[in-house]
Amino acid sequence: MLxxxxxxxxxxxxxxxxxxxxxxxERLGVNPAEVEKVVDETDRQRDQYVRTxxxxxxxxxxxxxxxxxxxxxxxIDGAAALVVxxxxxxxxx
Length: 93
Fold this sequence. Notes:
This protein is mainly alpha-helical. Helices cover 51% and strands 0% of the residues. The protein has a domain at 17-66. The chain has helices spanning 17-28, 35-54, 75-89. The longest helix is centred in the middle third of the chain and has 20 residues, at 35-54.
């Protein structure tokens, strides 16, 4: 709905596959023997969603992300703080 709005904050969050697999087992109760298959299928579904709704590949972050550069190892709280900081910079809150 907001994909084409330049005044919307577009955030693309990425986590490494091993971390996502670990969380799927620990928090979602996915069978460890099937976790890679489940994560791969989830990724395929996300790819399809982005293609359908945004008309581009999910890994093409160019126009899907505001802010600069790649941020590694922020963690959940660090990523959330970065989004809040950008919203405040824009004087949205």
